[in-house]
Amino acid sequence: MASHLAEEAHQGYSWIGYPQGVASASALRAKALFQGGLRTKEDCYLDLDLWILALLLHPYASHPLWHIARIGLDKAVQYVADFQPSSLRSYYHEIDLRVENKEGVFQTLNHLFVKMSASASPSSYLKR
Fold first, then answer.
1. Which of 27, 92, 91, 104 shows the shortest CA–CA distance to 58?
2. Domain boundaries, the chain
3. Which of 64, 66, 75 is nearest to 34 (CA)?
4. How far is CA 15 from the centre of its chain?
């Protein structure tokens, strides 16, 4: 239920163009998905995508949401690495292009005015 409500909030914040709201809703949904159990490759990818979207939209490491998203992403990466190592390698190679092309949950970037740092590529968040 929490995942569904966070998805609705994500859509609403995307529609009105509120990046901080999208970041918060993405983090909430990712946390709910992780706690509910990531059973498939698609679940794993969606969870990773949501954490990365939260980090991209809240790029200030001093902000509490960034810290929460960083910890959540690290846990999700570890889970996926243990669950399906080949999936993580595949994800790592595709993520930059998927964000650039605004595929999947990253479509919301079409509705937001956000200037992302060139040094903060999505794949850089996967490195520990």
1. 27
2. 2-126
3. 75
4. 18
Distance CA 25, CA 16 (A): 13
Q: Which amino acid is at 55?
A: L
Whether 25 and 105 have beta carbons less than 8 Å apart is answered as no
Q: What is the pLDDT of residues 12-62, one digit of tens each?
A: 887 888 888 899 999 999 999 999 988 888 999 999 999 999 998 887 888
Residue 46 in contact with residue 105, Cβ under 8 Å?
A: yes
pTM for the model: 0.86
Give the tokens for residue 27. 């983090």
- Assigned token pair, 34: 């992780």
128 contacts: CB under 8 Å, gap ≥ 6: 74, 77
**Beta carbons of 104 and 98 less than 8 angstroms apart:** yes
How far, in whole angstroms, is CA 63 from its chain's centroid?
16
CA atoms within 13 A on the CB side of 83: 18
Q: Dig out the tokens for 111 from the structure.
A: 């509705």
Question: Per this entry, what is the length of the chain?
Answer: 128
